[in-house]
């Protein structure tokens, strides 16, 4: 144990790369305006979705697949883009496409106030509710157009498609507060979670039974994630109790499931599958960056909704790293997003439409809180407008080839998984954030049939202050609202960043925990440097200083510091640096043994009748690289326990831990006792079902706050 403690304490004392970012807002003069986004929707997108062929026969039975000129697919004489593609030539109507197109019309109404688009949306909603809801539970996900029969059997449906089945209905409820639609949503949401969440997997299972080329217990990221972005995050803040609290719990459970099962700390990406160790390792597989972007975006919203500031901090920090990783800067000053990370770790510079949308949305969202996070948007937005749009027939291509900037035309612009959703959401988020970043209000349109509590009216996922709400009625007595949302104050990164020394994430810091300050000219050195913290009660206390340099100071928040707003003072060589900070009772962070998320931990192996044997979780390789040492769970007679080293949780009343997605009993959580500010959590035994798992994640929560996920290796 002493060896492991010495190692991570030494690593902690060494300076890390500075975290302070310049508050770069100069790009705002080049950022496309909200009007540019509205023009993109009206001129580039809507003509493709409002031509007669798009509206279906009957209206509302929107066709899933169309040719690139917008015409209906003739299955006997298909257009060239579809000919030879057996999947696209299957005569079928897909729930995902139907719900996404319905959602798209809702966006058009939301941004224009034109009731025509709300009417199109309503035909889609009526069709879905009449035909696609299965009275025996859930929803049908495909209609065989040849036989006129909806299917497949319940046992062969997957939660991703069921989640997308709720997308259109969720947005309709957001716009109208239709109580009957909400009841359908509540019923189907409960069916999905109750039927598919598998505690033994630590995540959602893929089907109720194996079949159709899939195993029932496949672990797929989208089974969890696509519940969050289709209805949970949007509707949770406007639901009445007890539903709002229940949905917050569901959001937390999905977030922790995704962190524990699909995130790879060593690769800093979310992977699509997690059935084998190779599926979560760039040495063996590549992965798009769109799902990582979406996962971080959804976790950020979840953290804000539930008050989990640890989850919010993880998502925002990870989001900024992902944006830097995905951005391609060109010598001429232009730039664009890449589409993924290839096997081996190189960036895939080709672009996919939905991935590009997700990255733009993440960057624009983060820019509202830290303006520098949006610095790539002028280049990426302009690339989108210039190269993705089909200027002849409208809509956008499935992708664009890097270098030649030519469209990828292996699939049509309208097919089962590409029907208005991502591109229209791109417009909505682009409009709201562009207006606000330019200091302008955002105007959105609703259609509430009754008086609605204004505190539940939100501009999509965002929070906003209402400047005005104007209601009008048509001759039929239908009510429409135009709501103007005031632009928020745009945040900038502080000159001094304060983080947990363990997680290196910003956010509130716990009294008694070990923290780091990052900046410039903070201290001449450890000798002579002093730190004090003044809490909200006005009490100033000296802090223990572990390490000090011009760019980094590591110190302990004094025990007894009151929760709430506080101030930090660093004095060295006649210079005093001050910074504002927030103190919390609990803010957990797990220490790491290297820069790729290897958790600071110790193994205790217990064999019957023998004293516990302590083992390391790391080894030192070439160049003094700290590498994971796989934990051997041993024979069935062995019980393996873990001690996890952390900070910021010694005041916690409740601590929970999962290893590899599996809940593991917490035997002790509190102070470590040897080093000031160091906490430890003892858990075990480690489930034997994790044998052969390779790298597994440790996800820890303390009093509802999520720590940074770390990983260990299991043989």
By secondary-structure content and strand pairing, the structural class works out as alpha+beta
Number of strands: 40
Radius of gyration: 26 Å
Mean of all residue-level pLDDT scores: 95
Quickly name the level 1 CATH class of the domain at 590-714.
Mainly Beta
Low-pLDDT residue spans: none
**How would a textbook summarize the main sheet?**
6 strands, antiparallel
> What is the terminal separation in angstroms?
21 Å
Query: Which architecture of the domain at 590-714 does the CATH hierarchy give at level 2?
Result: Sandwich
Shape: globular
**CATH topology category name of the domain at 590-714:** Immunoglobulin-like
Strand content: 15-25%
How many DSSP helices? 15
Helix content: 25-40%
Explain this structure.
This protein has 715 residues and is of the alpha+beta class. Among the domains are: 13-20 and 494-585, Coagulation Factor XIII, Chain A, domain 1 (Distorted Sandwich); 590-714, Sandwich (Immunoglobulin-like), CATH 2.60.40. It is 31% helix and 23% strand. It is built from 15 helices and 40 strands. The strands form 12 sheets. Strands 28, 29, 30, 33, 36 and 37 form a 6-stranded antiparallel β-sheet that branches. A 5-stranded mixed β-sheet has the order 20-27-26-22-23, with no helix packed on it. Strands 34, 35, 38, 39 and 40 form a 5-stranded antiparallel β-sheet that branches. Strand 36 and strand 37 form a beta hairpin. It starts with a helix and ends with a strand. The model has no long low-confidence stretch (mean pLDDT 95).
């Amino acid at each position: 144990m002493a060896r492991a403690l010495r190692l991570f304490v030494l690593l902690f004392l060494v300076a890390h790369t500075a975290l302070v970012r310049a508050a770069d807002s100069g790009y705002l003069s080049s950022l496309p305006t909200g009007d540019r986004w509205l023009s993109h929707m009206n001129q580039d997108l809507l003509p493709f979705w409002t031509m007669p062929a798009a509206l279906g026969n009957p209206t509302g039975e929107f066709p899933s697949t169309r040719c690139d000129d917008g015409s209906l697919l003739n299955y006997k004489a298909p257009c060239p883009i579809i000919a030879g593609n057996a999947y696209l030539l299957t005569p079928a109507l897909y729930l995902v496409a139907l719900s996404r197109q319905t959602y798209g019309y809702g966006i058009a109404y939301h941004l224009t106030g034109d009731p025509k688009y709300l009417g199109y949306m309503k035909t889609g909603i009526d069709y879905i509710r009449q035909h696609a809801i299965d009275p025996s539970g859930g929803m049908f996900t495909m209609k065989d157009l040849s036989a006129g029969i909806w299917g497949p059997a319940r046992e062969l449906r997957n939660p991703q498609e069921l989640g997308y089945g709720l997308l259109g209905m969720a947005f309709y409820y957001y716009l109208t507060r239709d109580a009957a639609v909400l009841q359908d949503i509540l019923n189907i949401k409960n069916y999905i979670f109750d039927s598919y969440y598998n505690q033994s997997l630590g995540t959602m299972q893929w089907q109720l039974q194996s079949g159709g080329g899939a195993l029932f217990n496949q672990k797929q990221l989208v089974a969890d994630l696509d519940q969050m972005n289709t209805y949970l995050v949007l509707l949770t803040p406007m639901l009445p109790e007890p539903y709002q609290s229940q949905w917050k719990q569901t959001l937390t459970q999905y977030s922790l499931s995704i962190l524990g099962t699909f995130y790879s700390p060593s690769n800093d990406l979310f992977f699509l599958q997690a059935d084998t160790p190779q599926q979560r390792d760039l040495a063996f597989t590549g992965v798009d960056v769109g799902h990582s972007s979406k996962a971080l975006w959804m976790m950020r919203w979840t953290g804000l909704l539930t008050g989990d500031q640890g989850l919010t901090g993880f998502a925002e920090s990870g989001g900024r790293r992902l944006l830097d990783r995905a951005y391609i800067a060109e010598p001429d000053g232009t730039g664009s997003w890449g589409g993924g990370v290839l096997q081996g770790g190189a960036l895939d510079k080709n672009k996919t439409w939905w991935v590009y949308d997700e990255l733009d949305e993440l960057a624009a969202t983060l820019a509202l809180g830290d303006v520098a996070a949006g610095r790539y948007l002028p280049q990426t937005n302009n690339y989108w407008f210039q190269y993705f749009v089909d200027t002849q027939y409208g809509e956008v291509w499935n992708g664009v080839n890097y270098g030649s900037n030519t469209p990828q035309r292996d699939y049509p612009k309208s097919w089962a998984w590409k029907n208005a959703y991502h591109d229209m959401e791109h417009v909505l988020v682009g409009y709201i954030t562009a207006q606000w970043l330019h200091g302008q209000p955002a105007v959105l349109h609703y259609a509430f049939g009754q008086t609605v509590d204004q505190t539940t009216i939100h501009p999509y996922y965002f929070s906003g202050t209402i400047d005005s709400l104007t209601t009008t009625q048509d001759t039929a007595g239908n009510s429409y609202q135009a709501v103007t949302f005031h632009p928020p104050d745009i945040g900038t990164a502080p000159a001094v960043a304060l983080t947990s020394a363990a997680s290196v994430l910003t956010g509130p810091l716990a009294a008694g925990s070990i923290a780091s300050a990052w900046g410039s000219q903070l201290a001449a050195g450890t000798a002579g440097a002093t730190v004090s913290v003044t809490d909200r009660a006005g009490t100033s206390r000296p802090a223990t200083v572990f390490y000090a340099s011009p760019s980094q100071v590591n110190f302990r928040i004094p025990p007894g510091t009151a929760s709430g707003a506080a101030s930090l003072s660093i004095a060295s060589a006649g210079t005093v640096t001050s910074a504002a900070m927030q103190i919390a009772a609990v803010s957990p962070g797990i220490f790491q043994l290297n820069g790729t998320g290897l958790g600071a931990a110790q193994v205790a192996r217990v064999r019957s009748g023998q004293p516990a044997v302590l083992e390391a979780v790391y080894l030192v390789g070439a160049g003094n690289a700290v590498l994971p040492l796989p934990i051997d769970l041993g024979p069935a007679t062995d019980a393996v326990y873990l001690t996890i080293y952390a900070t910021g949780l010694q005041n916690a009343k409740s601590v929970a831990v999962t290893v590899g997605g599996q809940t593991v009993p917490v035997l002790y959580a509190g102070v470590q006792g040897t080093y000031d500010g160091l906490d430890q959590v003892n858990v075990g035994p480690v489930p034997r079902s994790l044998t052969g798992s390779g790298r597994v994640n440790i996800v820890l929560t303390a009093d509802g706050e999520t720590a940074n996920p770390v990983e260990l290796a299991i043989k």
